[in-house]
Each structure stands twice: as C-alpha cells, then as structure tokens.
Amino acid sequence: MAVLEIKKYPEKILKERASPVQEIDDELQRLIDDMIETMYSAPGIGVAAPQVGVSKRLIVADVSLKDEEKTPLIVLINPEIISSEEEIDSEEGCLSLPDYTTHLKRAGRVFVKGLDREGNPVELEGTGLLSRTLQHEIDHLNGMLIIDRISSIKREFFKKRFQKSLLRD
Ligand code: NI
C-alpha cells in the first residue's frame, strides 16, 4: 500500500467528470488500498479517485473518526445517489482545498447504490455525516468541489483569498 499525493485546487482533474469503472482487477484493488491508506494518513473521512489523480468513479469513506456512529469503512465503485431527503446545513471541508471550510446545505439522508470492491451490487443508506460525506465524494466524481456549491459572492471571496495565498508562498 502507498500514500498517494492528493490533488489540490485548481488542478484540472478535479473539474473533470470521472469515467465509470469497467473492470475490477488487481490494479483497481491496489488503487482502493492506496486510497484507503491515503484517507487515513491525511487524515480524512473520504477520498474520491480523482483526488489521487485517477479519473474513475470510485470512492472510499470512513466517518467513524468523526462520528460516534460506528459505520464500517465504505468502498463504492460507480456509486449513484438513488434518492435523498431533508436538508441540513453544516460545515464542510475538503482535502483538495486545504485550510478552507464552508457551510453547505445537503440532504440529511441519502440512499446510494453501487458495487463493493468485489463487484457485488450494494445499496446503502447514509444519515448525518455519512450522508454528507457520500454526497461530497460523489460530487468529486462529477468534477464538483464545495466551492462550486457556494454562492458566487462566497466563491469570489474564496478565489481572492486563494490568489493572495499564492503570492505569499
Ligand atoms: Ni473533497
């Protein structure tokens, strides 16, 4: 296993729509293991494949670090949100946007389907932090970051702050 480099805003791959996984082979298993190790090492509660430079529809998540709820480690290939309910406003960050958090409204409950790492069809329900994390990671597969979900005023503010941080470095 290896800790992979996490791609950061404004790298182009983060804006791309990722392709469906076609084959569940050894290479994919290695990628999954590396994504899990990268997530725990960050530390983070979710990682999507584009964040480690692979434009494929694959996510890993483990919210047990931040949530009392004992949800096991989740690996989802080609995940899709089937339905969502409620709306909850909460603070959110992203490993690809270091030192930035923002309040975002997201569904408080989602039903997601996909394949597990062996290729078996799975369906799962996420509430609370898991619901938010699943939506966040699936957004990554569609080239969407949290700054694409905030108001244009907030986004301009983020971009100005980002430009300033580049000048500092
Ligand atoms: Ni993220």
Helices, strands, pairings?
Layout: H1 26-41, E1 46-48, E2 58-61, E3 74-85, E4 88-94, E5 97-106, E6 109-115, E7 121-127, H2 128-141, H3 152-168
Antiparallel strand pairs: 1-2, 2-3, 3-6, 4-5, 6-7
The site of nickel (II) ion has 5 residues, from α2.
Strand content: 25-35%
> Which ligands does the model contain, each kind named once?
nickel (II) ion
Shape type: globular
Number of helices: 3
Largest sheet: 5 strands, antiparallel
Alpha-carbon distance between the two ends: 32 Å
Oligomeric form:
single chain
Mean pLDDT: 95
Strand order of the largest sheet: 1-2-3-6-7
Q: Total strand count, please?
A: 7
Specify the helix fraction band. Answer: 25-40%
What are the segments in which pLDDT stays under 50 over at least 5 consecutive residues?
A: none
Observed structural traits:
two-stranded antiparallel sheet; alpha+beta; 28% helix; five-stranded antiparallel beta sheet; 169 residues; binds nickel (II) ion
